Amino acid sequence: MAEYTAAERVALARNTARPGVVDYVQGLFTDFFEQKGDRLCGEDPSIFGGIGLFHGRPVTVIGHRKGKDLEERMACRFGMPNPEGYRKAGRLMDQAEKFGRPVITFIDTPGAYPGLEAEARGQGEAIARMLAKMSALTVPTIAIVTGEGGSGGALALGVGNRVLMLENAVYSVLSPEGFAAILWKDASRSDEACEVMKLTAADLLELGVIDRVIPEPVGGAHTDVAAMVRTLDRVLQEELAGLSRMSGHALFTGRYEKFRAMGAKALRKERT
Amino acid sequence: MSSVFQRRRQKLLALKAMHSVSASVHPHSSEVCKNCGGEVPHRDLVAAGYVCPLCGYHHPIGAYYRLSQILDRGSFRELDEELASADPLDFPGYRQKLEKAQAKTGMNEGVVTALGRIGGMKVAVGVLDNRFFMGSMSAALGEKVTRLVEQAAKSRLPLILFSASGGARMQEGILSLMQMAKTSAALERFSRRGGLYISVLTHPTTGGVTASFASLGDIMLAEPGALIGFAGPRVIEQTIGQELPEGFQSAEYLLEHGFLDAVVPRSQMRETLIRLLKLHGKAGANRDG
Ligand SMILES: [Zn+2]
């Protein structure tokens, strides 16, 4: 692995040339059919999802979309979903469960959109439902943090049997800027925040939050998208083969136990 | 079975309850309401459960005080009281801040979990306390909530959670975030086994707690005027570049937008819970036990 500082990895993770879910879908799946709308009130392009074939096997794919040009970026609110996006993702997961398809998610968002309409339509409730739903699926689920994994808006697609992370991706409770602003009342100390937050793939592997780090081409995923796709293809085949041997009950239980153990080492008994 | 133990338990809860309000509202002879600025005799404020008699503002109250108002006398049995944060990221200054909060509140973490009875019906109940790191989600808080949910599932008890939270515990970073998944997964399993979960949102409930266990109740209640949301009002104002409308993210706003069953004044909370437990009968409550 290349030696980057945490702040440099944050910059790489946010690089606008970095491949996103649409690139990975094009590279990894065939016969892809995009599904739109939450069937309740709208369509949110910042969540991209549908059905595709992975080496001949139908899978449900869902990911955060940041958009390619300015117009698309604006429409996607730079990858920050509204509740409709999460509810669409939930709908697609229900179908994956119904038809027995594995679910593969691509995580890349600064966070859920902090807007007036988002709150009016229940951003918190939408994310909470996603966490509950994803935790209880009986099909194999693989979550891959490909860029920015920001806050609850990222975790909403992240309750996988396996959680993988690209080498230069980051995953954190809040953006480093927001973190510095809240904790030190000084957003300019974000580089310092990057170091103490433990947000790199190596940090999170050590903390037991993710299962595997996926190496990127030298210089980052955007320097050789084809190579990145080849690596992902190999990793996904391995991971899916492993999970496909498990029963629905074992997938559910295994995922529960995995997240149940999160933070087990962060506890202490105080004398009372 | 009653008598000595029950009386002792009641005494202990009463003592802790005293401590948990004296830290949030100072016991002068008269108080200034944080909302309307009116002067209220201290004993009137206490008699009204710290609801302002002039404007109806529900002052935040501590977890033990809340429990003393909700549970049957002598029924309180605290769980996992000793559980605390181990400072998992070795975060600069966090240990000292934890010690300070513990000394100030007499609590080890920002939630009290317990078994008790309401109207004679056995329940598993948890109350977040915003005096302890603003009720923010630490791994220990997530663990206590999860253990309570699992206990409720195992003992077939209805579950009641009172939320009050500023969101994530920044000093625990990603491990704070993961508690959202952990608690939500536990609640989903509890729900699939037929468990009743009543979620009560109190002022303020925001961030990761709103986006996980607080929003997953079969029955969703809130106290009047409580601020409830995912993103904080200031963050939203910065994003959209305009001021927010009056009453935005209030309990009443959420009721109007379809996210609550009812807004329940503090004075009616216990009676409302009793009625809801009764309505769920055996499915919700276990009268023996
Ligand atoms: Zn008042």
Any overview of this molecule?
The complex is a heterodimer of chains A (272) and B (289). By secondary structure, chain A is of the alpha/beta class. Chain A has helices spanning 6-14, 21-28, 70-75, 83-99, 116-120, 123-135, 151-155, 176-184, 190-197, 201-206, 225-244, 248-260, and strands spanning 30-34, 47-54, 57-64, 103-109, 141-150, 162-166, 170-172, 212-214, 267-269. Chain A has one domain (6-260): Alpha-Beta Complex (2-enoyl-CoA Hydratase, Chain A, domain 1). Chain A contains twelve helices and nine strands. In chain A, strands 1, 2, 3, 4, 5, 6, 7 and 8 form an eight-stranded mixed sheet that branches. The longest helix of chain A is centred in the C-terminal third of the chain and has 20 residues, at 225-244. The N and C termini of chain A lie far apart (47 Å). Chain B starts with a helix and ends in a 5-residue tail after the last helix. In chain B, helix 5 runs parallel beside helix 6. Chain B has 289 residues and is α/β, with parallel strands linked by helices. Chain B is globular, with a radius of gyration of 18 Å. Chain B has helices at 3-22, 42-47, 63-70, 94-105, 139-155, 173-192, 207-210, 233-240, 251-256, 266-284; strands spanning 30-32, 39-41, 77-79, 83-85, 111-118, 121-128, 159-165, 197-205, 219-222, 262-263. The interface between A and B is large, with 56 and 66 residues. Strand 9 (267-269) of chain A pairs antiparallel with strand 4 of chain B, so a sheet runs across the interface. The complex binds zinc ion.
Brief summary:
Chain A is of the alpha/beta class and 272 residues long. Chain A is 44% helix and 19% strand.
